[in-house]
Amino acid sequence: MKKAADVIIIGGGINGCAAAYYLAKRGVKDVIVLEAAKSIGHGGSSRNGGGVRQSGRDPRELPYAMYAVKHMWPTLSEELGVDVEYCQAGNLRLGKTEAHLEKLNRLAQNARNAGVDVRMIDAKEVKEINPYLSDEIIGASWCPTDGHANPMLTTLAYYKRAVELGVSFVKDAPVKAIQKVKGKARKVITADGTVFEGETMILAAGYESREIARTVGIDIPMTRYFEEALVTEMQPPMFDQMLGTADADFYGHQAKHGSFVFGSECGLEEAADMPLTDTRTSSLTMSAGCRAIMGYIPALKDAKIVRSWGGWLDMCIDEVPVISPVEEVPGLILACAFTGHGFGTAPSVGLMLSQMVVGEETVVDISALRYNRFKADR
Ligand SMILES: Cc1cc2nc3c(=O)[nH]c(=O)nc-3n(C[C@H](O)[C@H](O)[C@H](O)COP(=O)(O)OP(=O)(O)OC[C@H]3O[C@@H](n4cnc5c(N)ncnc54)[C@H](O)[C@@H]3O)c2cc1C
Fold this sequence. Notes:
Blueprint: E1 4-10, H1 14-25, E2 31-34, E3 51-52, H2 62-80, E4 91-95, H3 98-113, E5 119-122, H4 123-129, E6 139-143, E7 147-148, H5 151-164, E8 168-170, E9 175-181, E10 184-190, E11 195-203, H6 209-214, E12 222-232, E13 242-245, E14 250-254, E15 260-264, H7 283-296, E16 305-316, E17 322-325, E18 332-336, H8 346-357
Parallel strand pairs: 1-2, 1-11, 2-8, 4-13, 11-18
Antiparallel strand pairs: 3-7, 4-6, 5-6, 9-10, 10-11, 12-15, 12-16, 14-15, 17-18
Helix pairs in contact: 1-5, 1-8, 2-8
The chain binds flavin-adenine dinucleotide.
């Protein structure tokens, strides 16, 4: 097994796999990806709702969310040689109260300021776009360039292309620590004591990045949160848009084969005492999610749930990720704390990570996401 490389990536989720692919594509093929699980994409990357959106984002995220939608997602299937089921049919973010509309309007204004085509629409226009929705909806924000894709296919497509280009993946290799040599991140140690060495390290291990970063004195202020999702039995084709709500009580879309995939925020559990290895859903939280969905899409009231699952989110204290080199630890690049919306941006994040490794300017300015934003300003 190869134990030294130019670049070591910790975490084989979509961000780690995309970074590996874009590195290899630009000729940096001496790359090892260390993944704790026995399979690639075992974390949030295979468990998410597939939303590829610009609307509803923090202004600091908009430049690279927009870059991905404009320049990367439309040609991704072709580029990776796998149909990732990208569908750019718009995002409706629904509201039932004036307070909901106020919140949606604020988010829409942020996005418009950054140049995203998103506008508020009334109940009549909502129904024209999607006749299956509840009469209780009084308005929505509408972003026609948003969409959705298949998370598992996208993650595995990046993995497959990275392997084809020469990247080495080591699975079942949980990283325990990073070690510095002469003041620079140099070694990565896994649970069985194996030592890997690299010139540059990208830490993209979701919430677990926090523990790993601590081994070189870096603390990323994030917590974890358990999010649940479900898939229904196949339905006749109904609509193509991605749906969300002002209160984020559910989000989802109809997949290419007909099933609906929904994520839901039931607000019932905090999951503080659940171990990270536990990804079971509960009948209590699932039924709360279903009530939220039926309240917006009554046409699905008889749809049967085929499967449900859960996954962990890496929630940053200021709700946007940390994507940057670390001054105190030269050679270490952080890519974590995606706060529940890191799937849709993974193409541009992967590309920018590859640019950081070779010291190139990133395609858009993401200096607002640097690690040292948490440092006291004296
Ligand atoms: C239910 C749910 C719904 C979501 N819906 C959406 C959505 O609609 N749109 C959107 O944009 N985002 C969504 N997200 C968030 C999105 O899935 C994540 O932000 C994204 O997948 C993050 O990718 P990642 O590669 O950074 O992390 P992950 O996919 O979590 O990958 C991290 C990898 O690191 C590995 N790892 C962990 N510890 C170690 C270690 N010690 N050593 C080595 N490897 C390690 C893990 O096994 C994992 O494979 C959702 C998430 C969930 C759970």
